[in-house]
Amino acid sequence: MVRICKPVLAVLAGLSLVVGGCSSSAATTAPATTPAVSVATVAIPTVAPATPTPPDPDELFARGIAEGPAWKSFHLKIALGGTIKASFLQATGDPAFKKLTSDVSLDGIAIEGDVDAVNLAFHMPINVPAMPAIGVAATSGDLIIKDSMLYLKLPALGTKYRKVKLGTISGELGVPVAIPTAGGSSLVGMADMVASLRQQLETNGVTPQLAGIDQIGGRPAYHINLTLPLAKLNSDLAAAEAAAKSDRTVTIGPSLLTTQIDTATAGVWIYTDNYELAQVQIAVASSTVGSLNFTMTLSNFDQPVTINAPAASDVATGL
Q1: 267 CB contacts (<8 Å, ≥6 apart)?
Q2: Is 64 exposed, middle or buried (0-12, 13-18, 19+ CB in 10 A)?
Q3: Given 3-state DSSP classes, what are the helix, strand and coil percentages for the chain, each rounded to the nearest 5?
Q4: Domain boundaries 57-136+181-304, corresponding CATH code
Q5: φ, ψ for residue 154, nearest 5 deg
Q6: Which range among 16-25, 31-40, 236-245, 266-275 has the greatest average pLDDT?
């Protein structure tokens, strides 16, 4: 069985200056006469508006990362989309996919809610659309983290929230999970991860490119494009597949060992007014696996949030 894991010049107007000059002459014996007036107009050339210098995308990226650890709370939305090929799922060897006849769509999978970064608490409803190809009905659930406890409610788990300590979640799920600690620095780990990604991108010759300004949730945000290094991604993927093959506890289909990523792009949006991270999009496509689109949107920074654990009568223990 395979476990698949895995932001002025002011405009100068034209001027015209009118300089008037007067000249007159009269002899002492001559009768008075009306002075002659001479007017000269001097035109100043119109100065074209200066074009603002575009901000440096690498600096924007760095500032967006630097803001992260200071957030006390924010609203988070994560959406998934794309398609997993039936042939890829069948190659895993899982009997559940043996009779699969069509690709599986991931469009519509979403979680959204508030995060209290200081106290490491969040509440996010979960929505998964129907996936007829693999016999999955539409599912709605709820995910809460409060006081170092995770509460998950899904129809497949019963009518109550299932409760598990964050410190033991790796054992419950059977996969390693890094758990941050509560406090003002609870987002430092995320910022460090993004900073590490930025360093890897630089090492592999990836330069952020400013694509313009878009609206994210009704607010203007700088749009920065990144083209991810395919050679590096495929090298890492091959290493991971080789490790999975050597793991006697993992069954892996032979066709998975030839998986290649064909395209990989990323976009980062940074709010123009305060340089906070607004949105991240990652799109990956493979002729053998399918496609995956990941979008994470952040908003409502440092606004008051209240997150409560479920009532004890609505909780059962264990996943």
Answers
A1: 211, 223, 224, 225, 226, 279, 280, 281
A2: buried
A3: 25, 35, 40
A4: 2.50.20
A5: -140, 150
A6: 266-275
Which residues, at least 6 apart from 247, have a Cβ–Cβ distance to it below 8 Å? Answer: none
Write down the pTM of the prediction. Answer: 0.69
Partners of 143 in beta bridges: 124, 152
DSSP string, 29-68: TSPP-PPPEEEEEEEPPPPPPPPPPPPPHHHHHHHHHHHG
Q: Are 210 and 61 in contact (CB under 8 A)?
A: no
The answer to whether 266 and 226 have CB atoms below 8 angstroms apart is yes
Instruction: Locate the domains of the chain by residue range.
Output: 57-136+181-304
β-bridge pairing 315-317 and 161-165:
parallel
Backbone angles phi, psi at 56, to 5 degrees: -75, 120
Residue whose entry in the numeric block shows the structure tokens 């970064």: 117
Specify the DSSP class assigned to residue 159. Answer: S
Separation between Cα atoms, residue 210 and residue 60, nearest integer Å: 9
Question: Is the CB of residue 100 less than 8 Å from the CB of residue 134?
Answer: yes
pLDDT tens-digit series, residues 225-238: 987 788 888 888 78
Residue type, 300: N
Structure-derived torsion over alpha carbons of residues 308, 297, 274, 222, reported in degrees to the nearest 10: 180
